[in-house]
User: What shape does this take?
Amino acid sequence: MSESDPMTMDEDERDGFLGSGGTGVISLSTGEEAPHSTPVSYGYDAAESVFYFRLANEPGGAKGNLSGRAVSFVTYGNDDGWKSVVATGQLEQTTEESVATESLQGLERVHIPLIDIFGKPPREVAFEFYRLVPDELTTRTETRTEP
Assistant: This one.
């Protein structure tokens, strides 16, 4: 394998890298426009391979209606070499009856970091909870070659 070929993580490595939560970038489809991309915090349920998001969604905001939107989510890090995970699929609002019970169980297994970036106390920000059951989940990890 050449130096530029990406390596992938196995399921245990991927789940270890994702942990129970962290930060990344979510990109929301917008039709003809460029996707709306924004940094977010996430929770990850390794038991079900599902991501959870606490998304600020102010009325009239740039994100628009989120439920059912096609998304891609990327998280990456460089603890012991570069690694990344990309998940694609559709957002599901956790309050919808069809996913509420599963979501409550999954939310008990995750930690979504609360990051204060809104210029006002987080308790004053309108948050909604969503989950992403990936249609596709890909990984990459840096290869280490001898000089």
Q: What stands out?
A: The CA atoms of residues 61 and 126 lie 11 Å apart. The mean pLDDT is 79. The first strand starts at residue 21 and ends at 28.
